[in-house]
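Troubleshooting: if your tokenizer reports a length mismatch, compare your output against this known-good record of 345 residues.
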Amino acid sequence: MATFRYTDPVLPKSATGRTAEAYAQMAENFGIAEPAPLVALSPAPELFTATWALLRESLLVGGDDAFGSGGTTRTGRELVALGVSLANRCPFCVSAHTVMLHATGDHRVAERVLRGEQPEDPAQARLLAWAQATRTPRAPELVSPPFPRAHAPAHIGTALSFHFINRVASSLITEAMLPCNAQRFRAVRSLGGRTLQKTVRRTLAPGDSLALIDDPQPGPAWAAGTPIGSAYAALRAAATMGAGLLDEADQALVQAAVAAWDGAHPPLSWDALPDRASRPGARLALLAALAPYRITDEDVAAWKKPPFSDHCLVHLVAYGAFTAVDRIEGALAVHHSARYAKETS
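Known-good structure output:
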């Protein structure tokens, strides 16, 4: 079972209010009562509920097919989640979504991708390649998204939700999804997937998670008018609250570094990384954005001192993570708009 590295999360037995309602929805809709990356956010209920809403509406529901071109598939959306997790080097999420692909019944696809191979189906291979490329704002695979406009909310929403969730997972929990890393064995992955088959095949009503959000907004153009757009807007609002934990100079440093980022994983000798002793908050936020798997106990201890709490740490990590998500979303939105212009010209 995953270990929470730096916080004491609010578990279902002690949750109240909207946190308790979100846990109930997770158990019913996801089939997983305590998904560790989301549980890690529970000290900040506004982040916890908004992240759940985006995951539910994009990955689990898939969005409304307002343009009549046929709905997306859960296999396709799981491939997006897995591709993003591979690009971000998030072992926990790679394991989890390999199991979820088994749950869809696509066992061969799950194992091929885990081995570093491409799906045999060309459409699935293009979708996986697009998902992996979303980490790199100027990647050529983004120029022509491998799906029509009707599928953009589900696929872009899933990609962005996992760019955020991967960073939270790598920052705040350990890599092991199961005790003794049992998910390393194919039989365990397959069995885990089979236990979730009924939940994965269930049809969910769009928008049910929005009751957990105050004053839902339309969201960005690629998802405006859908519950996915409202969930994304809620997560953006909650995550950017963490900027207030840094002074203006540290905020500017993080924003400038992410704006200049090309999608690459930073080198071990990373000269731009702020010093732990003098700028611990900026260091944590920038690591959460670009290399969350490199956050150490010393990094957290240097910043998390009174009056900072678990709630504050979760918000600082979320701020850094969403700064990167914002950079990625900007590139996806540009290419989506260009694709739609071609379709309607």
